[in-house]
Every structure is written in C-alpha cells, then in structure tokens.
Design goal:
- Helix content is 50%, strand content 7%.
- The chain is built from 14 helices and 14 strands.
- The strands form seven sheets. Strands 1-2 form a two-stranded antiparallel ribbon. It has a two-stranded antiparallel sheet with strand order 3-4.
- Strand 6 and strand 7 form a beta hairpin.
- The model has no long low-confidence stretch (mean pLDDT 96).
C-alpha cells in the first residue's frame, strides 16, 4: 500500500467505501445465458447495446475481486457472468475463441471477427476466476491460454497479432498498441494465477517482450505513443477516427498513463526481467500525458486524444483516463518517492469526486465535455466498472502484484 495512504485513514476508508459503492451499482449486470449486460446511467441493463465480450470479462474480473473482498452478493454475480462466458453464445463452439459480442437479438457478431483485445480480457477474467475459486474458472483459463497462444501470440516477434476473421482463417495486417497493452495486463495476471513459478516466469517474460516496444516508442515520439501499426509494426500516424472508442486517431494520454503503471508494475515485480529503461519510460509517458492532457481547456480533466505535437484532437473527458491517471500517479509515487506524483494523485481524486462520480445515480459519468458537463458522444451509459473499480484498489495493494492476487492473498488495506 502507498505509505501516504496508510497515514491517512480517512482517505483509505473513502477508497474502501467507494469500492463497495461501485459494486452495488453494477449488481444487475448478469444477462442470464448471455454474459454481462451493458449498463445504463442508473445501472439498469440496456439491451439495445447487445452483449460484449470485453464487458463480460471485465465484470467477471470485478465481481471475482468483490467476492474475494468478502462483499455479499458479488460471488453469484461473478459466477453468473462467468457461466455465460464459458458456455454461452459469446463462445464459438465451432472454430474456437470468443466473438466480439452479440447483437441485441442475441446472435453472434460473426462479421466482426475475433480480436486480441477481447481474448486478453478473457485471460484476465479467467485468471481472476481461478484465484476467486469460481466454478469452471480453471477450465476457462486453460482454454483461453490455448487459444491466445495459438492464434494471437507471435513468439518470433515477441508481440501479439490483432484481428482474425471469425473462422481464424484470415489474419488482418493491422497491429495495435491497445490490444498489446491489455495483453500485457492479462499476461501479468495469468502469471500471478499460475500454479508454479516456472509457468509464471514464462508469462512475465512474454509481457516483458511486449513492453520493450513501448519503451522504445516512448523515446521516438516524445512520450506520445502511436496506436496503429502495419504487419511489420511500422507506425501509421494518420490512421484512426477522432472519436472512436477503440481505434482513435493520434495519441491517447490515457494509454500513456496505463502503460506507465504497467511498466512500473513489471519493473517492481521483476527488475531483472523488465526491459532496460522501463522506469524512465514510465516517467516520460506520465509527464507527457500530464502536459498534453490535463486542464487544456481551462477546466480540470484530461482530453481524450491529441496529435503528435500534443495539441488536443478530442477534448472531451473519458472517465477511464482519470482512473488510469490515478493508478499511474500512485505507482510512480511509491516507486520513486517523488511527492509531485502524490500531489497529482490527490488533485485527480478531487476532480473525480467533483465532476466524474455521479453522486445521484451511482458510478462515474463515462464522458464529459470540455467544461465537465456529462455527454454521450463516445460512451453512452455506464457500461462497466473496470477502470473506476481498479482505481479504488490499486493504491491499497502491493505495487508489483496483480490486483486479484493481492486481494486473494489478503494484501489489500481497508
């Protein structure tokens, strides 16, 4: 736990209370037989958005942790969502792997193909299910690792491929840093759920190989990370749509923060295994994300995207960026002892409480305009809890350990 937080029990109590607040908000997420529902602004399932694999996996992860925390009602939610992920229509029984989602009518989105982004989250969900002792978790993890390694892990390159057609026949030339980032997170989680140290080391080594790319990119583009690449991992700086949820144009400060936290986590977990320069890269990414993203419109909050000079492209504020900024600030404060990271951490929780937390209906507004007024152009509703939930827990667990493992091992402060 962050030593500063240990000295401030009121803040620690607030984090614990907000963890439970979020779990209460999402308790209606189970869509029986389908997965996790897309939640509206008050936590009511919104079937018009269908069912998404990534949301389903995130909710397994969140409620598995809730079960390990001992919060009543969480285990049935986690198990109910997991059961649909194991045997429901999100899973392709013919060709293997998981579809991107289901239509509002409950039919698989076959034409959308299969993405590393979703399969990384299946790994994360299965790892948390194993650590929480959910029924079927071990089988799901075994199946998910087999599919991931066979279809998405490129061992020669030490990186992941991004997108297949539904039958795993045709591999797209696109490569993406977003899917890579969540694969790093998933691999570190799989390592912490592994049965022995040798297995854990293999997964951490894979994660480290992917992090080498980010360390290198952080120096090439002044702390701004390209998101889009071709099959040879040549960056395409013109690709993407400005307000796309997953494939935006330009650099994404939120991903700078997220990568800063993951690089720090790996560097603390195994300093000998982490790529050389990981901590310097983390600090560089963090500093650039702050300079480019924070308070650019005269109001608190982080812009969604910038160009590669640092100028804002989409100035709306997405809730997940603030959550990841908090996690990165906490990690770097603990790792370096630099008080400026603590000051950022506190200022950003103030922003979250003032502008992002919906004190009337629950959870966080997922999108604000540049004046911090809730809006819905990119993220309607409040689909899931993953980013906000983790922001309440990361400061309360050991820095080098994945979240679910730390909670399972009773290393979370409350």
């Amino acid at each position: 736990m962050n030593p500063w937080i240990a000295e401030h029990p009121v803040h620690l109590s607030w984090l614990d209370e907000h963890t439970r607040h979020l779990l209460r908000f999402g308790r209606r997420t189970v869509a029986p037989g389908l997965g996790a529902a897309y939640l509206g602004v008050d936590g009511t399932p919104d079937p018009s958005h269908g069912t998404n694999t990534w949301i389903t996996c995130r909710m397994v992860h969140v409620y598995a942790i809730g079960a390990l925390l001992g919060v009543p009602g969480c285990r049935p939610v986690a198990q109910g969502v997991l059961d649909a992920l194991r045997d429901g229509p999100l899973r392709d029984a013919s060709h293997g792997g998981w579809y991107r989602g289901l239509s509002p009518e409950g039919t698989p989105e076959v034409e959308a193909g299969k993405a590393v982004y979703d399969h990384a989250f299946v790994l994360l969900a299965a790892s948390s299910a194993v650590l929480a002792g959910l029924e079927g978790g071990a089988d799901l993890l075994e199946d998910a690792t087999e599919v991931f390694l066979e279809r998405f892990w490129d061992d020669d390159a030490g990186r992941v491929v991004d997108h297949w057609d539904a039958s795993f026949t045709t591999l797209d030339d696109y490569r993406g840093l977003n899917g890579t980032m969540h694969s790093v997170e998933a691999m570190l989680a799989v390592a912490d759920a592994a049965e022995d140290d040798a297995q854990a080391m293999v997964w951490r080594r894979r994660a480290s190989r992917m992090c080498e790319l980010t360390v290198e990119l952080s120096t090439q583009h002044n702390g701004r990370l390209p998101e889009h690449f071709d099959a040879q991992w040549v960056a395409d700086l013109e690709m993407g749509a400005p307000d796309d949820q997953f494939l935006p144009f330009g650099a994404t400060p939120g991903h700078g923060f997220e990568w800063a936290r993951l690089l720090t986590q790996l560097e603390v977990a195994d300093p000998d295994l982490a790529p050389a320069g990981s901590l310097d890269a983390a600090r560089r990414l963090f500093a650039t994300a702050v300079a480019d993203g924070w308070r650019t419109s005269g109001h608190d909050g982080f812009v969604y995207t910038t160009d590669f000079s640092g100028a804002p492209v989409v100035s709306d504020r997405m809730h997940w960026v603030a959550a990841e900024a908090i996690g990165a600030a906490d990690a770097l404060h603990r790792r370096t002892g630099d008080a400026s990271y603590r000051d950022h951490y506190l200022a950003w929780w103030d922003h979250v409480d003032t502008s992002l937390i919906d004190h009337e209906r629950g959870s966080w507004h997922h999108q604000l305009d540049p004046a911090n007024v809730p809006t819905t152009g990119v993220w309607p509703g409040k689909p899931d809890l993953y980013h906000a939930f983790q922001a309440t827990l990361l400061p309360r667990v050991p820095l080098g350990c994945s979240l679910t493992r730390a909670v399972r091992d009773r290393q979370v402060a409350a």
